[in-house]
Specification:
Layout (H helix, E strand, L loop, with lengths): L5 H12 L4 H8 L3 H22 L7 E11 L17 E10 L7 E5 L3 H13 L6 E4 L4 H10 L4 E9 L14 E10 L10 H13 L14 H18 L11 H4 L9 H5 L8
Parallel strand pairs: 1-4, 4-5
Antiparallel strand pairs: 1-2, 2-3, 5-6
Length: 280
Amino acid sequence: MNKLNIKRRAEVIAALVEGNSIRATCRMTNTAKGTVIRLLVSVGAACAKYQDEHLQNLQCSRIQCDEVWSFCRAKEKNVPEEYKGQFGYGDVWTWTAIDADTKLVPSWLIGKRDSLFARAFIDDLASRLSHRVQLTTDGHRAYLEAVEGAFGADIDYAMLVKLYGPEPEGERRYSPAKCIGSETYVIQGNPDRKHISTSYAERNNLTIRMSMRRFTRLTNAFSKKVENLEYALALHFMYYNFARPHKTLGNMTTPAMAAGVSDHVWAVEEIVALVESESI
């Protein structure tokens, strides 16, 4: 099998991180579908490993967490009976954390929206922080036990609960319900009330949906395998954290640079070069 050179691989990866589907990437780069998927898997795995090793001892001060919905294979209501309740079929949630100051995403997890995955996600987040932080989450009750178990009393933690109006009907049913207010609750410590917010986490959800075709609503580009969704997320966050300058930080500053874990803006070729074994 012919191997793609580094320039060709970079073209494929660049197409994927800019929100193109697998098939669109195939057409744009004149690359076979199987080759694109294998490249996604190998680079995604390398990105996951690199970030797991380097996003450590972070000097974050204000963290926001949220969950974003997607699905694999089929929507929950269409999952065949023999697969109902099996992870990887139907609803899949991506748990994310973002640093409000540097915009770095230090931790994420794909799973169900339950207490088991909440605990795994918060445990991973806590292991990457160097000192006490202020944490804000939405009102999902699974966070309560997870945060207490991971941080104990060593955290300033608050919940922001948004209140929504009636669900849209008719032609507007795919639009989100209107937010009519919010309530804040101090759960632990002494969080600064002016920084109790999930706005950056919610904006990060939009970035995820716009940067990965798999998260687009009302499309056939959804993930067919949860494993490939995991690789796509690892690639997305590698590009977001290390290679794409954030406008709020300056034209040439990425979240990783602002957080002190990188000293330059990564090129896509550098991300591709993380793959140790050239098997594509």
